Amino acid sequence: MAFTTNEFTKPPRPRWVLPVVVTAVVVALLAVVAAVVVGSADDGAPAVPAHLPAPTQGLDLTAAPTKLEWKLIDGVRLPFSGEGPAKVAGPLASGYSHTPQGAVVAAWQISTRLATSTDYEQVMANQVRGTEAQRTQVRLEVANVRNLTSNQFSARFAQPVGFRVVSYDNAFAQIYFAIQSPAGGYDFTPRAVLWDGKDWQYQLISGLPALPNSTSIADFTTF
Questions:
Q1: How far apart are CA 180 and CA 34, in angstroms?
Q2: Which of 22, 98, 162, 207 could staple 220 via S-S, CB 3.0–4.6 A?
Q3: SS3 label, residue 120
Q4: Cβ distance 10 to 168 under 8 Å?
Q5: Peptide bond preceding 12: is omega within 30 degrees of 0, i.e. cis?
Q6: Cα–Cα distance between 198 and 96 in angstroms, integer?
Q7: Mean pLDDT lowest for which of 24-38, 112-126, 158-172, 194-208?
Q8: For residue 67, what are the contacts with CB-CB under 8 A and spacing of at least 6?
Q9: DSSP code of residue 62
Q10: SS3 content of the chain, % helix, strand, coil (to 5)
Q11: Do β-strands 162-168 and 172-180 pair in parallel, antiparallel, or remain unpaired?
Q12: 112 near 160, Cβ under 8 Å?
């Protein structure tokens, strides 16, 4: 899937959003579902802040989630940790800590479930918000996933090997995930999540620029 470096829509300004990279096509689908905005279900979403406050003092943006394990769920490996999810009900995985590590786990959990679950509409309704046009685009992209062979599916949703929290405050987090590329090196997929007062919500427009393939992830935290 291409929830990666390219995002499916080009709004006049960044908006609340959802994006594993194997090829250019892979980059396209994860980035697509990484493009639904967090706002109201029917109205336009608020814009991503042009300038984010400095990270909350005392938080470590480079620490990996605690007690992390990757479980195979419906053909894809999803992260479970001490920072969440605390509850899984059908396609919904919720209950993440209000920390950078909770944001990292939530970003990958929600975006991947949105792209792969047969009940993805529940994910979109409860954990991803945006305009109806953005929702329609997500549905079209998710439909493409249904036509993948098992090998294509596995390759497209490969487990990330690391992450880098680009920005974080109590309300918003931007994250890059690194995925090993079959062509060599690493590909990168952006994600963003918004704290709604109770939990992290997935934001499909990450507000982050695309990154080129690289042979190094020295500035990333490995899982």
A1: 19
A2: 162
A3: helix
A4: no
A5: no
A6: 9
A7: 24-38
A8: 81, 82
A9: T
A10: 25, 25, 50
A11: antiparallel
A12: no
Could you give the CA distance from residue 222 to residue 59 in angstroms, rounded to a whole number? 18
Whose tokens are 């993948």? That residue is 148
Residue 71 amino acid letter: K
CB 19 within 8 A of CB 109: no
Split at pLDDT 50, 70, 90, the class of 188 is very high
Beta strands at 200-203 and 186-195: parallel, antiparallel or unpaired:
antiparallel
Residue type, 50: A
79 Cβ contact partners less than 8 Å away, ≥ 6 residues apart:
65, 68, 69, 70, 104, 105, 108, 109, 223
Specify the amino acid at residue 81.
Answer: S
What residue type is assigned to position 69 of the chain?
Answer: E
Put residue 58 in one of left, alpha, beta given phi > 0 → left and psi -120 to 50 → alpha: left
Cα 108 to Cα 120: distance, rounded to the nearest angstrom: 14
pTM equals 0.77
The token duo for 54 is 């400095």
Token readout for 216 is 């190094």
